[in-house]
Amino acid sequence: MPLYDLVVVGAGIVGLASAREMLLRHPALKLAVIDKEPRVGAHQTGHNSGVIHSGIYYSPGSLKARLCVSGAREIYAYCESHGIPVERCGKVIVASDESELGRLHDLYERGLANGVEGLELIDRERLRELEPHCAGIAALWSPNTGIVDYSQVAAHYAVDVRNGGGEIHTGRRLIRLQRRTDRVVLETPAGELEARRVLTCAGLHADRVAALSGGAREPGVVPFRGDYWQLRSGARHLCRNLIYPVPDPAFPFLGVHATRRIGSGEVWLGPNAVLAFAREGYRRGDLAPADLAGALANPGFRRLAQRYWRMGAVEMWRDYSKRAFCASVQRYIPEVTMADMVPGPSGVRAQALDPRGRLIDDFVVDADGDGVMHVRNAPSPAATSSLAIGRLVADTADEAFGFSLAGDPLSAPSRKGQGTAEAGIGG
Fold first, then answer.
1. How confident is the model at residue 404 (pLDDT cuts 50, 70, 90)?
2. What is the DSSP string of 124-135?
3. Could you give the count of Cα atoms lying within 13 Å of 420 in the half-sphere of its Cβ?
4. Quick check: is 119 in a domain?
């Protein structure tokens, strides 16, 4: 059985970016990535809207803010150098009435504080120039927001990992982690792997995988499903690029918005945000009893539900009522009719909560004692920020695992203890 220097659990965009960065720093590293799915990027990476965020929404000084702004620059450069289709199309965040003007201005100030380039507060006339069918009294114009297919990005990261000497093993579900004196044994249905160090980037299952190593069970993950509708082909002209409402600052989701997809020209409307009855439940009828029971038993989720039950009820109603969903879209694109909307895809977001029911609003990476490290929380804009997150993870791994930049990657002894990189989720 081969002994790896590092095994990365999870072949989503964050796991692949982290593996890629580790190999760039330590070319001699014997590294493998494992994932239970038959392909890379099968879940959150492959079920998102494909937006390259500019960094407007996030608290100044947070990891999200810093890594999104730098990550967006890097993702554009990476795509252009690797021939991945990408478009810097821009987006508008629209105030529908005067009650939203204060929050719109706050977003503008926050974006400036985060170093977002090109932001502009615009009036109704300029909004109509950019989006002729959009209704609003003012808007925030973000010219550096863009679109890309993150499945393609993840596939290229996987090529980089392999070209750097790493291995990627799909179809290998992690069953158990056993710590031994000088190594960690990873049990999978396809057999065991041994590694000196393990990094987990398990997304929707981050808390469960951390628990396999004896790590803390908090923060727990609660899955939220987001459903999309699409504009029929004859109505796509109603949205040129990206149109977003002014978000509610008390909730981490951005509200129903319109997103043009790269390549296909499709326009997605959504998503809403409802409790998913399965962590990988992309349809309303999908049910995994253990997942649902775990969410309902989570004290943080129960407190969250008590606090936001009215908003949750609205989201549930909009999930089942096409008319209610259409009404949300008509606030900023009034010409859209129910006949213009056809069913679209769905995604599931891993939302980390603390026991008090507070939404953990930033990326969280921690070292779990000897030999194991976890990415505990990496929601949107993790795809935009993936190259920058890869550096954050590699920095933490170098310190926690004692990797040396010179000579043998394991020449320095591991440092026992806890290392945490966290601040502060909003997508």
1. low
2. HHHHHHH-TT--
3. 9
4. yes
Return the exposure string of 188-223: e unless at least 16 CB atoms fall within 10 Å of the residue's CB, then b.
beeeebbbbbbbbbbbbbbbbbbebbebeebbbbbb
Query: Is residue 97 domain-shared with residue 141, that is, in the same domain?
Result: yes
Element (H, E) at 388: helix 386-401
Number of neighbouring beta carbons within 10 Å of residue 405: 9
Residues 23 and 96 in one domain: no
Q: How far apart are CA 318 and CA 350, in angstroms?
A: 21
Band of residue 293 on the pLDDT scale cut at 50, 70, 90: very high
Same domain, 104 and 196: no
For residue 59, the 8-state DSSP code is P
Task: Answer yes or no: do 370 and 399 share one domain.
Answer: yes
Q: State the angle between helix axes of 299-307 and 289-297 in degrees (0 to 180), rounded to the nearest 10.
A: 70
* Angle at 243 (CA atoms; ends 107, 349), nearest 5 degrees: 80
* CATH number (domain holding residue 320): 3.30.9.10
Of 67, 10, 12, whose CA–CA distance to 45 is shortest? 12
Same domain, yes or no, for 132 and 215?
A: no
Specify the pairing of strand 3-9 against strand 31-34: parallel
* 60 domain residue, yes or no: no
CB 162 within 8 A of CB 155: no
pTM over 0.85: yes
Q: For 263-283, write each residue's pLDDT tens digit.
A: 999 999 999 889 999 999 999
Q: What separation, in Å, do the N-terminal and C-terminal C-alpha atoms of the chain show?
A: 41
- What is the domain count for the chain? 2
Mean pLDDT, the chain, integer: 91
* Structural domain boundaries, residue 395: 3-45+151-219+361-422
- Pull the structure tokens for residue 197: 């160090």
Residues 22 and 100 in one domain: no
User: In the prediction, which pLDDT does 216 show?
Assistant: 80
Residue at which a domain ends, from 296, 328, 350? 350
